[in-house]
Amino acid sequence: MTTCKGVVKDNIVVLEDGAQLPDGAEVEVRLLKPSFQRDDVFAQVLANRITHYVGIDQIIEEDKQEREEHPDTWLKP
After folding, report:
1. Residues 6+ apart with CB under 8 A from 7
2. Is the pTM of this model over 0.85?
3. Where are the beta strands (DSSP E) in 1-77?
4. C-alpha distances in Å from residue 30, one per residue of 8, 13, 23
């Protein structure tokens, strides 16, 4: 496996100098640094606050419904 680094510009990955990949090569792109700042995270949390009490019984019921609606995602080893 070859590892290359680059930077995204206009939604295109520009590889660092000297890095060469053959045309048609399959690649996987991973972010090395989080794409958000601390202040952005706090702003998002404050904008989506839970405004009402959520009890454990409600959490269990929602989990049960999700398991019933999507059993294939819970049965995989």
Report:
1. 13, 14, 16
2. no
3. 6-9, 12-15
4. 11, 11, 20
Q: Are 6 and 19 in contact (CB under 8 A)?
A: yes
Spatial distance between the Cα atoms of 76 and 74, rounded to a whole number of angstroms: 6
The pair of structure tokens assigned to 52 is 């009402």
User: What digits encode the pLDDT tens for the residues 1-58?
Assistant: 788 888 889 999 899 888 888 899 898 888 887 777 888 889 989 998 888 888 999 9
Q: Taking residues 53-76, what's their average pLDDT?
A: 84
